[in-house]
From TrEMBL:
<comment type="similarity">
    <text>Belongs to the COG4 family.</text>
</comment>
<keyword id="KW-0813">Transport</keyword>
<dbReference type="InterPro" id="IPR048684">
    <property type="entry name" value="COG4_C"/>
</dbReference>
<feature type="region of interest" description="Disordered">
    <location>
        <begin position="1"/>
        <end position="26"/>
    </location>
</feature>
<feature type="compositionally biased region" description="Low complexity">
    <location>
        <begin position="404"/>
        <end position="420"/>
    </location>
</feature>
<keyword id="KW-0472">Membrane</keyword>
<feature type="compositionally biased region" description="Basic and acidic residues">
    <location>
        <begin position="421"/>
        <end position="432"/>
    </location>
</feature>
<keyword id="KW-0653">Protein transport</keyword>
<dbReference type="InterPro" id="IPR048680">
    <property type="entry name" value="COG4_N"/>
</dbReference>
<protein>
    <recommendedName>
        <fullName>Conserved oligomeric Golgi complex subunit 4</fullName>
    </recommendedName>
</protein>
<feature type="region of interest" description="Disordered">
    <location>
        <begin position="79"/>
        <end position="98"/>
    </location>
</feature>
<dbReference type="Pfam" id="PF08318">
    <property type="entry name" value="COG4_m"/>
</dbReference>
<feature type="region of interest" description="Disordered">
    <location>
        <begin position="397"/>
        <end position="432"/>
    </location>
</feature>
<dbReference type="GO" id="GO:0000139">
    <property type="term" value="C:Golgi membrane"/>
</dbReference>
<feature type="domain" description="COG4 transport protein middle alpha-helical bundle">
    <location>
        <begin position="205"/>
        <end position="589"/>
    </location>
</feature>
<dbReference type="InterPro" id="IPR048682">
    <property type="entry name" value="COG4"/>
</dbReference>
<dbReference type="InterPro" id="IPR013167">
    <property type="entry name" value="COG4_M"/>
</dbReference>
Amino acid sequence: MDSSPTPPSPSRSPVPLNPRQLTSPQQIGTQLALLTKRQAELSLSLNALVADREDIDDSLEHLTILGQHVERLVQEVDGGSRSTHGQPRGLGFQPNGHDMYEEEDEGLVERVRKVWETSERVGGKVRRLDVEVGRVKESVDIVSEVIDLKNSLVTLSLAIAKEDWESASRACRRAMSVRKQVIDGNFAGNVVPTSQYPLPPSQTLQELRDTLLQTFRREFDAAVTRKDQPGVSRFFRLWPAIGAEEEGLEVYGNFVVDLVKARNPTTGKASSPLYYLTSLTNLLESIAHIIDQHQPVVDKYYGPGRMVAVVGRLVGESDRVVRNLVEGWEEERRVGRLIGDTKSSSFLLLSNPSLFPPLFPSLLPSNANPITLATLANSTTSALPNLSSASHLLQSYTHGGRKSTPTQAPSSASSQAGGQQEHEQEGPDPRDVDKVLGELVALGGRWALFRRFIWSRIADEDEDESEKNGEKKEEKGELPEKKPYEVQMGILEQSGSQRAIENLLKVYYEPLEFWFLRMSIEKAHKIDTPDLTTQPHLSSILDDTFYLLKLVLSRLLSCGSLSTLKNMRRKVTEVLERDYTDAIRRKMDNVHSLAGGDRTERERREKDQREAFSIYLNDLDVSADYMERLVDETLQRIPQVFIEPEIVSVKDELEGFKDIGNRFKSVCKTGLEQLFNQLTRPRLRPILDDAYRDINYLLDDDAFQEAEEMDLVRKRFVKSWDSLILGYRGSFTEHNFQAFFSLAVEVLVRHWEKMILSMRFTELGAIRYERDIRSVANYLSAQTSFGGAREKFTRLQQIGTILNLDAEEDPQEFYSNSGVPWRISKVEYDSILEQRQ
């Protein structure tokens, strides 16, 4: 059943043609109208066919009901009995093609089949028609683009003739927007060429564009020569309009490089301390000024991130200037001679621990060579002018804001000299080295400041783009590429200027700073004097060394070089461990090496030995605190010098300096134990012997009453303990005294336990013992603010608890179920029970 209308006669309607035979826009329009009309007719026919949907649905519903009824009958018949061979014995109504349907249903099936065939036939025609419509539309688009291409080329040529460069740029942009396959197609090749431009469209467009590029370059250069700022801006904006961003940025790069070259030269003589620093500063400031002013314009017309090409040209110009500056600086400052002189330094004092001057005259060996000592003392500190003010500059680091007295080493050195001839200082003049170091740090700092400026401009632009690219890579399971700013910063990091500054720091700054630190620490050892007016007692080497260390870290950070920081951290750590920590340890070893003399001299020497040892221990303890606070203070300056991607690495390097603090603590702990073992441990047992002189715990009522009144154990102990231990309170730091006090209490308690375990107790004696222990523990706890003394008496107190058990209480039950966290083993518990009478 075909309800489509009869096609109109050829006399009333145009004849359908093959789309490939269409040669004019009129034919295309006629065929498109014809196809649209045909599509409408087919749509009407299909709608009429589908309109009879109600009858079809009724028939399908009836057919479904019949099928269900037949299936039910088949199940009733075939399910009742089965043959022995498994073959059904029903009426033969099993599904088999159309056999299950009756004749009256076959007509409905046939009707449905015809409807399906008709639908397929009509749908196929519609799909073919859609394809033809798509081809016609594509042809119309091609014709439109070709017409636009031709008009754009005509407009472009006229605008060039009139020197209307803005109109020419717009026309060129429109022509370039046409698809390449259309420009190179046969249709455009037949329609676009004219008698004036007979070449193919692609060649014509390229020639006209080249004409624009040459004109823009010529007019831009002319405007630059005339210093015509509006003209420069006008032609600078035209390059992106014709897709010539690279050409425009190249010309613009030449322009800004000429601006840098034309800057005013640095005035002054090369011998001036600020000549080279001023030259580098002027260069980098002029480049930064250009970037700051011109980047918004480049971003506006050329797109974000395109300024990096211009930065590359500017950095190339800086490479030439920086290379000349570095060569001139090396020659003018004669730094090669300084490096050679530093290598000749022997550091006699640091390499010979026996030459360290003692803190007190009584510790001076009797056979000491006065010329040698005078030589050490007469190496004047004028080469290190800042040492005299070190204590004042480090007041912020001292406990409680205490002030160290200025060192008196120069005067004492003069008295020891005795008119002897001064020893000639080996190596270069430290003042010359200090000047060169300051200049190197300033040069490196200027370049670091320029790097941070460039990074801030590049990172801000590329942050969002890099995040998007990173997310896409993660979704695809790929490794994220380098961030855009990392790629663009490569222009700066791989530049000749960067290499020149890094080489300057590596070749000259690192060895000179290393020598300066060692030399300064050696000077500090030479003039090391004690300060007994403050508590705790310290020596001048502490403040002098950490003033120098603060100066070195400040200069090191100001260089702004991560590689230099890594190298110098290892070197500074080596110097501090070898020339400061180990040197103090060797000084402590030399303190007790003297012996002999009469009684008065020996007592004086022992007092000074103890004082000197305590001062060295305090120096180490405070050094650990200084080191930690100095690093924390330095960490706050990192964002002011380094770019953000380097901050984590810089923090890791600076945190590495805290390991030196651990070294200070370790040596201090070892020295404290050495002092305790030599001077204090042997005198702890006599304290107990004196406290328990004529004392026992086999007490009756009268003896108990007398012991309560006399309280001899506590009184004797307090007197002896104070004379032995409390003398260290004023000379030790709080941390050292805490450690020393804990060592003393721990050893005292062990001796006390051994003494008690050898004694016998009556019931009253056990009570008296427990009161003695409690009174001593309370006294020791009251002597300190850090606690811990009472805990060390736990075993002695538990012994008192055991000795004072009631007679009716089961000792074994008490040990097991009393809930006391016993520090005493079961064997010790049973032994203590046997001590009772």
